[in-house]
Amino acid sequence: EDFLNLIFKAMMKDSLNSSRPVSSAVQSSEQIEEMFDALSYIKGASLLLMLKHYLTKDVFQAGIEVYLHNHNYRTAQSDDLWDSMNEITNGTLDVKKMMKTWIVHKGFPLVTVVRKGKLISVQQEKFLYRVEPENWTSDASYLWHIPLTYITNRCNFTHCTNAYLLDQKSG
User: Fold this and answer.
1) How many CB atoms lie within 10 A of CB 19?
2) Which end of the chain has the smaller Cβ count within 10 Å, N or C?
3) Beta strands 162-166 and 146-150: pairing type?
4) Which residue intervals define the domain Peptidase M1 membrane alanine aminopeptidase in the entry (predicted)?
5) 49-65 burial by CB neighbour count: b if 16+ within 10 A, else e?
6) Strand partners, 50
7) Backbone torsions φ then ψ of 26, nearest 5 degrees
8) Between the CA of residue 63 and those of 72, 89, 165, what are the distances in Å?
9) Nearest-CA neighbor of 45 among 96, 91, 102, 87?
10) pLDDT, tens digit (0-9, with 9 covering 90-100), for 2-37
11) Does the CA dihedral 170-167-137-134 come out positive or negative?
């Protein structure tokens, strides 16, 4: 419950146009210090949980083990983690490409799901809680690779999770 409260607080900050990406180029040590705040840590944790759920626990853990083994006692960058995950998924999913959309964009998407009979359509757009005119920038080009999981009525809810990667504005 405490973690959920932290996530919602971080999402509130991240839903403002004045937010910033989790990862960005820095020019000074002051900028580095500014990057390590609650938003970075909570959003980062949320993104890792999203990835773990999408890849499955075993695949995610194997990717973490490869990452730790490959970068034992060395510095690393976020791409190194994504490359380790790609190594485990054997090219079936470009984890780096997917996760880049989450760490280089500020904010997060709003996914709208519409059902017409047996047809389900989904659409994404950047979610803004409140537009701040002094910080306004157009984010119309933002596109996230959103891992969606779902179940159907033919499943027993434990062994039949389906996955879909929404990597376009709609699908």
Assistant:
1) 21
2) N
3) antiparallel
4) 5-102
5) ebbbebbeeebbebbbe
6) none
7) -125, 150
8) 14, 8, 19
9) 102
10) 888 888 888 888 888 878 888 767 677 776 666 677
11) positive
Domain ranges within the chain, ordered by starting residue? 3-104, 108-166
Distance CA 64, CA 84 (A): 7
Strand-pair partners of 126: 109
Residues in the chain: 171
Give CA–CA dist 170/152, Å, rounded.
Answer: 20
Instruction: Give me 69's structure tokens.
Output: 């083994």
The answer to whether 22 and 102 are in contact (CB under 8 A) is yes
pTM for the model: 0.83
User: In the block, which residue shows the tokens 């959103």?
Assistant: 146
Token pair listed for 81: 């983690």
pLDDT in tens, 36-63: 777 888 898 999 999 999 999 999 999 9
The CATH number fitting domain 3-104, selected from 3.40.605.10, 2.40.480.10, 3.40.50.150, 1.10.390.10: 1.10.390.10
The number of CA neighbours under 13 Å toward the Cβ of 166 is 22
Supply φ then ψ for residue 70, to 5 degrees. -70, -25
Give the burial string for 154-163 (b: 16+ CB within 10 Å, else e): eeeeeeeeee
- Closest by Cα among 8, 85, 97, 91 to 52: 85
